[in-house]
Write a structure and sequence with these properties.
It is a single chain. By secondary structure, the chain is an alpha/beta fold. It is 44% helix and 23% strand. The protein is built from twelve helices and eleven strands. Strand 7, helix 9 and strand 8 form a beta-alpha-beta unit. The longest helix is centred in the first third of the chain and has 27 residues.
Length: 295
């Protein structure tokens, strides 16, 4: 197995497309096809299988090889950084994935302090929903992800951060605003502002399941993945919304909103910093974790 074959297979497997992999590796699709075929001949078994005209799926052997290439390429990146340090060259890269509100409201202060301390580190930020955050960390495209602790699979390392809770957001003066406890029947009477339907938003799936179990009809007046956008429309009376938040988030306190506890449906949660367990973190990456923890 040659290096260029391993890199080519890794990108095809990661992106699920010869076309996209060709763009990333600056190679032709035919060259990538030949590289993958050469690997299949070497191992004596298929690594990829086509589903329909455009979709690719890894075979069990392909999944084994992808895990291997991820580990080798990660170790190569670490090796490059260590050699640069030996040469006296201060250079590093740090990629962080997180949902929009986390990037917009919770990270700026930490990142400002971090970049002052490590001006030679190239920091990249990726705005993704929770599922996307986890996938980027698992694939090695992101060094760290910030997501709900419950969304982090057991094969990733995690560092617990701030506590969060799932609440119902209603305008001040709303009939539900003063309630200590609300049930789904009460909630279903009002237009709802929910995260987009789809696998990237587990809170939406759980809500739909709860409504279905109670056989309750409900109306979605708006879909939004951005809590700040949702809060604007809640404030104007367009609908009521669900949010998993740090309750003292300043932007929410500034709006005319009331928070109604939903802890009887959604237990208290924590945000967590997730990372791959099989990677040794250089000092400048460990320093970012320490900064988040206030060390």
């Amino acid at each position: 197995m040659e290096w260029h074959q391993m890199v080519g297979f890794h990108q095809v497997a990661r992106l699920g497309s010869f076309t996209r992999a060709a763009g990333v590796t600056f190679r032709t699709q035919s060259a990538l096809t030949q590289q993958v075929q050469a690997l299949e001949e070497e191992f004596g078994c298929p690594l990829l299988e086509r589903i329909g005209k455009r979709q690719l799926r890894l075979t069990p052997a392909g999944e084994k090889l992808l895990a291997f290439t991820e580990k080798v390429l990660a170790e190569y990146g670490t090796l490059v950084e260590e050699i640069q340090t030996l040469k006296g060259v201060q250079k590093g890269q740090l990629t962080i994935a997180a949902p929009f509100t986390t990037l917009y409201r919770l990270l700026p202060g930490f990142l400002e302090a971090y970049t002052r301390r490590f001006p030679w580190v190239e920091v990249s930020l990726l705005d993704r929903p929770q599922k996307g955050v986890v996938e980027l960390v698992k694939s090695g495209e992101a060094d760290f992800g910030i997501t709900l602790e419950s969304a982090a699979p057991g094969n990733l390392g995690r560092v617990r951060l701030a506590g969060v809770e799932t609440v119902l957001l209603v305008p001040r003066g709303h009939p539900l605003a003063g309630a200590e406890r609300v049930d789904l029947r009460q909630i279903a009477q009002y237009p709802l502002i929910l995260p987009p339907a789809g696998s990237g938003y587990p809170a939406r799936r759980k809500l739909e399941t709860l409504f279905e179990k109670k056989k309750l009809a409900y109306r979605v007046a708006m879909e939004s993945s951005n809590i700040e956008l949702s809060s604007v429309y809640v404030e104007m009376g367009f609908g009521i919304s669900f949010a998993t938040v740090v309750r003292d988030l300043p932007i929410l306190q500034q709006r005319k909103l009331a928070f109604v506890s939903l802890d009887h449906y959604f237990p208290p949660e924590y945000m967590a910093l997730v990372h791959r367990k099989d990677r040794v973190l250089p000092d400048y990456k460990s320093a970012f974790v320490d900064l988040l923890l206030g060390k």
